[in-house]
Design goal:
There is one protein chain. The protein is α/β, with parallel strands linked by helices. The chain has a domain of about 140 residues: 3-Layer(aba) Sandwich (Rossmann fold), CATH 3.40.50. The protein is about 40% helix and about 15% strand. Strand 6 and strand 7 form a beta hairpin. Helix 1 packs across helix 6, helix 15 runs parallel beside helix 17 and helix 17 packs across helix 18. The radius of gyration is 23 Å and the shape is globular.
């Protein structure tokens, strides 16, 4: 059988489990009679050497990547494969190449880009490569042939019309050793109907919610849990609660099966608030242990600039209350430094989030500096404000979550914002430690002495001479960023 190699470059953080996106690509390829080899850098120590070994007799190499540090590994492996076999077709896919196909194809180690939903497009591309035929007319792909050509987009397939991901290819024992748990990443839907100005999802999926029916989700997930001894399921959906009735049906199905696994997902607060307390309680009883929310800001003016009119301050408090009653942990994501955000706007955000933190012990936060990802709707404004858009694939490597590339957030202004984030998180850490009684008495007394000045700083937005941070060396101990999907700390 002709062999196709699929590669996922290195990324930060522990693996959530086997790469669901590559398993989705593998399924139709195997049905069509191709041998598929997956190389996941998260569990392969020398991934470049592995790619070179597997591509010696491969039909092509497929690489899936996001914007940021993953690009570095994608470039290294692709260049190595091309050096070994210059004639080998290298196909890039995933979020970044889909949003910037022209720039991606400008690299000499990339021959083809599969744009957006890739299962059927990649299968057709592979068939064309095997037969030595032109890619002209293959919907959803861009390619080189006497220049760069972009074929029309392929209409999105309904998820329910696609075969299940090839989870039988995954070595869950291996991922458990690397990730510290027996986890299953699983997508019940893609897309989100909202059009937030900073989000690539609205461009990638064109605001269309494409979901599997509840009964298929319950059946597949429970079968995978039973077969592979899964203890935690991380739903990869952009906004799981878009169809609230479907979400409740899935939770009820999990509860009735009594499989004993925990599960997590992401959603928006307005949708959680549409659920009754009984529905949210059902989520908790079915195994939901964490929900991540893209709250982003508590300034009404900034939320309007973000085109998040659906995000209301009252809903943030209500979401925290509903989750608390159901025993569900929540992480509120924060974006600071957004274009047009003032010191007063940031102060309002930290003030309101601080109130939520004091009232609801189950809520944690993940503050981040605004990151200008490719293709987001706000780029015309960003260019006018002096943001330099990377001019090559490799330059996008440095556009990582938390990296600061904003002209209006430099020097002392940037240091003040970073300190405000640290003081805010330190204050919350002390509050939670005192409430839980999890700190030694001496340390508790020591930290309580700092809380009053901390609150004064946050109230008055005064972050000069950060003595508290120096004394506590908090920067090395505070969890400043968390996974919005699982709530797991990601460090700085």
């Amino acid at each position: 059988m002709p062999k196709v190699v699929l590669f996922l470059p290195p990324y930060s953080g522990e693996p959530l489990g086997p790469p669901a996106g590559l398993l989705c690509l593998a399924s139709p390829l195997r049905e069509a009679g191709y041998e598929v080899r997956i190389i996941d850098a998260a569990v392969v120590s020398d991934c470049v050497a592995a790619v070179m070994e597997e591509t010696r007799d491969a039909l092509c190499l497929g690489v899936s990547l996001l914007t940021g540090p993953m690009i570095r590994g994608a470039v290294a492996a692709s260049r190595a494969a091309k050096a070994l076999r210059p004639e080998l077709p290298v196909v890039f896919g995933g979020w970044h190449p889909s949003l910037l196909p022209e720039q991606t194809l400008a690299e000499d180690f990339v021959d083809i880009v599969v744009r957006y939903q890739g299962e059927l497009t990649f299968l057709e591309v592979v068939r064309k490569i095997e037969r030595g035929e032109s890619l002209a007319g293959v919907l959803g792909c861009s390619y080189k042939r006497d220049g760069i050509h972009h074929n029309p987009d392929r209409p999105a397939s309904r998820l329910n019309d696609l075969p299940p991901p090839a989870y039988d290819m995954a070595d869950f024992d291996l991922y458990e050793r690397f990730g510290g748990g027996r986890k299953l990443p699983y997508a019940t839907s893609v897309g989100c109907p909202y059009a937030c100005n900073y989000c690539t999802d609205t461009v990638f999926y064109n605001r269309r919610f494409n979901a599997l029916p509840a009964d298929r989700v319950v059946k597949e997930v429970c079968e995978l849990v039973a077969r592979h001894g899964i203890r935690e399921v991380a739903l990869l959906d952009s906004n799981f609660l878009v169809d609230t009735r479907r979400a409740v049906e899935i939770a009820r199905g999990f509860q009735e099966r009594r499989m004993g696994f925990q599960w997590t997902f992401q959603a928006s607060t307005d949708l959680l608030c549409r659920l009754s307390d009984e529905d949210v309680k059902l989520l908790g009883e079915s195994g939901v242990r964490h929900i991540g929310f893209g709250t982003e800001s508590a300034s009404e003016e900034v939320l309007v600039k973000m085109n998040k009119r659906h995000q209301r301050i009252d809903d943030m408090f209500l979401t925290a209350r509903k989750c608390s009653k159901a025993g569900i942990r929540a992480t509120f994501n924060l974006i600071l430094g957004y274009p047009g955000e003032s010191d007063a706007d940031r102060g309002e955000t930290l003030k309101i989030m601080g109130e939520i933190a004091r009232e609801f012990e189950n809520v944690t936060f993940s503050p981040n500096i605004f990151t200008p990802y490719p293709g987001i709707p706000i780029w015309p404004e960003l260019r006018a404000l002096g943001v330099e858009e990377p001019r090559s694939l490799e330059e996008w490597t440095d556009v990582a979550l938390g990296a600061n590339r904003l002209p209006w957030l430099q020097g002392e202004t940037y240091r003040q914002v970073k300190r405000s984030m640290s003081f805010f998180m330190l204050n919350n850490t002390i509050t939670k430690g005192m409430r839980r009684g999890s700190l030694p008495l001496r340390r508790l007394i020591f930290l309580r002495a700092f809380q009053k000045p901390l609150r004064w700083r946050l109230k008055h937005q005064y972050f000069q001479l950060p003595v508290e941070l120096w004394l506590l060396r908090a920067g090395k101990r505070l969890v400043m960023r968390r996974s919005l999907l699982t709530g797991q700390g990601l460090g700085e």
